[in-house]
Amino acid sequence: MVAATHRGITYTTSGSATITVDLDLPLWAGVDQDDNTWLSGSSYPGALTHGLARNTDGTNRAQPRLVCLTLGAVANAETLILSGDANVILAVICHGQDTTANLALTTSALTITATCDATTDGTTNDTSNCSVWLLVA
C-alpha cells in the first residue's frame, strides 16, 4: 500500500502504484484553501465567534476541487481510496500512458478501481502509468 496526503486529502492505493499530486485547484471563487488568516479572529465581522462552524449538524462539507494525479504502474484490480477532506468523487477522467495496456477506471463512493489488461489479448493483467483528473467535493 502506498499513501500520499496533499491539502487534507489522503490518497491510498491497494497495491504498489506510485502517486503524485500534480494539481489541486479549489473551485469556489475567491477561495485559497491554504489561506487561513480569517481564523485569526482579529476582525471577524458581526457577533459570531470567529472561526466556528454554524451549521446545525456541526459538519462542514469539503469545497469542490479539481485534482490531477499521476499514477505509476497501476495494476489490474488495484484501488485508489480517498479519505480526509473529500466527501464524494463527482467525476473521473483517465488517460493511460502505456501503449501495451487498456486502462479503465470505475468509481464507487471514494474508491476508484482500475481495470488494466494487455492490448494483445484484452484479458492478461498488465500495468499502466496514467493521468487521472478528479472532481471531488
Folded structure, characterized:
This protein has no helices and nine strands. Helix content is 0%, strand content 50%. Strand 1 (3-6) and strand 2 form a beta hairpin. The strands form two sheets. Strands 1-2-5-8-7 form a five-stranded antiparallel sheet, with no helix packed on it. The chain has one domain.
Compose a concise summary of this entry.
With 137 residues, this protein is mainly β. The chain has strands at residues 3-6, 9-13, 18-26, 65-75, 79-84, 89-96, 101-108, 111-118, 127-136.
Classification by helices and strands? mainly beta
SSE arrangement, N to C? EEEEEEEEE
Assign an overall shape: elongated
Helix percentage range: under 10%
The biggest sheet amounts to:
5 strands, antiparallel
Mean pLDDT: 83
End-to-end distance: 24 Å
**What's the number of structural domains?**
1
Topology:
Elements: E1 3-6, E2 9-13, E3 18-26, E4 65-75, E5 79-84, E6 89-96, E7 101-108, E8 111-118, E9 127-136
Antiparallel strand pairs: 1-2, 2-5, 3-4, 4-9, 5-8, 6-9, 7-8
Question: Which tags fit this structure?
Answer:
single chain, 137 residues, four-stranded antiparallel sheet, five-stranded antiparallel sheet, 0% helix, mainly beta, elongated, 9 strands
